[in-house]
Amino acid sequence: MSKSKDTPYYIGLGIIILIFGYFAVTNIVHYINKDKVVDSNRSEDRAPVADKFLKKFNTVPDFEFVDQNGDTITNESLKGKVYIVDFFFTSCPTICAPMSHNLKTVQDELKSHPDFKILSVSIDPDYDKQPVLKNYADRHDAIDGLWHFARGDKEATFKLAREGFSAYVGESQDSLIKFEHSGNFALVDREGKIRSRKDAYGNWMMVYNGVEENGIAPQLKEIIEDAQTLLNK
Q: Which residues bind Cu cation (predicted)?
């Protein structure tokens, strides 16, 4: 075969090799990038989330309460513990009972950890005296020494909720409801800092949904997993 006849053959073969190589390299790059995305998602959205993926928010301000057993509970007495905080009142006709029911689930999942606590703070201390809190605690099978239903100065409690936990609390215009408050749970680490993960959209959330509201499910699985992460640290 002459040189002049061979030239088109080699040119055509070269073009084919170039086209094949382009698509091969493109696919390799695509799958590498895809794997990087998967790895990134696994590292930030995996459950349970590693400690380094739980953001540290503010340190909880100083507080002092008395629980259903007459014991004084402070941020110092809870130092070194991992605990969950919510705000409620025993005569609440709306979300408080479901919140407490959900916390019972959390309690039962984490009760084997001696360093785990729950602090449910009343926003109606004038009514929620110690016997009332004790009765409410018994109705929800609260474990003594683990789950504290507590009361303190009303003004200080409202300030703690709003400034310490960015939680909404307030007097209600409806005399039957008495008070309004958010249905969230906050998770506090051993250093007294509020901790939480990213939500499903990649945004940092400071608190966990404690009760189903507006079609949004309570985040019990998430807060249990994250509490376990902090407890096992």
A: 92, 96, 181
Q: Is 148 assigned a ligand-binding role in the annotation?
A: no
Instruction: Give me the chain's average pLDDT, please.
Output: 84
Query: Which residues lie across from 213 on neighbouring strands?
Result: 216
- One domain, residues 146 and 70: yes
- Collapsing DSSP to helix, strand or coil, 67 comes out as strand
Indicate if 83 and 157 belong to the same structural domain: yes
Rounded to a whole number of angstroms, the distance between the first and last alpha carbons of the chain is: 76
Write out the residue range of the structural domain in which residue 185 sits: 51-231
Q: Is 92 annotated as a binding residue?
A: yes
Q: Please return the burial class of 10, using the count of CB atoms within 10 Å of its CB with bins 0-12, 13-18 and 19+.
A: exposed
pTM of the full structure: 0.78
**In angstroms, how far is CA 144 from the centroid of its own chain?**
24
Residue 140 labeled ligand binder? no
Q: What is the pLDDT of residues 98-140, one digit of tens each?
A: 999 999 999 999 999 999 999 999 999 999 999 999 999 999 9
96-110 and 220-231 helices, crossing angle to 10°: 40
